[in-house]
């Protein structure tokens, strides 16, 4: 069983991944954030610094590298949960290209590298996850969760339009671009995984039921 958790920044992916790891007694591969030297620079850089330092492109390469390592290990061991995954990484690169933060040339290099990595996964005994859990929420819920998380570099008001751009296209990515596994959508406007035990138990039941359908 390999589960990947997807969704907007701050929506609750790590919380759910931790819950699932404990419930299924499986390893959890968390997104590389605290040890990521580029992420704070990406969030705080001026337009001029982004242009000269190419932080968005460097950040995508960092995440692509760490997510490739995680998905390979997860598919080989076959009892794992991933807090975001290599499948979702392309969407962030695409948004940054649309915002002019990544050039067409950089995006082409990125896509070629990603495609090569995905071909490598085809050589593994297990080719893809069993299920993707998409945590969906309103833009208001996303901003509220980001504020409550309290990472200082994520809280600048200038980032709101970046978050909005990401949020606006997420459903399309899930519905029209992700095809590696079955999908389960959890409405985070109605669920509080941190403070509500009943919500946590309900979500676990939904996930178990979906996995049983796939067996």
UniProtKB/TrEMBL annotation:
One Gene Ontology cellular component: cytoplasm
Binding of substrate: at which residues?
Answer: 31, 43, 60, 84, 89, 154
Please name the catalytic residues of this protein: 83 (proton acceptor)
Which residues hold ATP? 7-15, 145-149
Give one Pfam hit by family name.
Answer: dNK
Which UniProt key words apply to this protein? ATP-binding, Kinase, Nucleotide-binding, Transferase
Single Gene Ontology MF annotation: deoxynucleoside kinase activity
Q: Where does the record place the Guanylate kinase-like domain?
A: 1-212
What InterPro entries would the database entry show? DCK/DGK (IPR002624), Deoxyribonucleoside_kinase (IPR050566), DNK_dom (IPR031314), Guanylate_kin-like_dom (IPR008144), P-loop_NTPase (IPR027417)
> Family assignment?
Belongs to the DCK/DGK family.
This chain belongs to the protein called Deoxynucleoside kinase
């Amino acid at each position: 069983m390999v589960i990947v958790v997807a969704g907007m920044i701050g929506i609750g992916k790590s919380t759910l991944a931790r819950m699932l790891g404990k419930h299924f007694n499986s390893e959890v591969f968390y997104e590389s954030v605290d040890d990521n030297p580029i992420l704070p620079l990406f969030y705080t850089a001026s337009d001029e610094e982004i242009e000269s330092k190419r932080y968005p492109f460097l950040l995508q390469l960092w995440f692509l590298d760490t997510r490739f390592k995680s998905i390979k290990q997860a598919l080989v061991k076959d009892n794992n949960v991933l807090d975001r995954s290599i499948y979702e990484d392309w969407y962030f690169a695409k948004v940054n290209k649309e915002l002019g933060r990544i050039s067409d040339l950089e995006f082409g290099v990125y896509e070629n590298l990603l495609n090569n990595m995905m071909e490598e996964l085809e050589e593994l005994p297990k080719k893809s996850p069993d299920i993707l859990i998409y945590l969906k929420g309103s833009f208001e819920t996303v901003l509220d969760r980001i504020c409550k998380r309290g990472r200082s570099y994520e809280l600048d008001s200038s980032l709101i339009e970046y978050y909005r751009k990401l949020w606006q296209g997420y459903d399309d990515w899930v519905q029209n671009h992700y095809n590696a596994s079955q999908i389960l959508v959890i409405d985070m406007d109605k669920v509080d995984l941190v403070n509500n035990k009943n919500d946590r138990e309900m979500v676990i039941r939904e996930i178990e039921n979906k996995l049983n359908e796939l067996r």
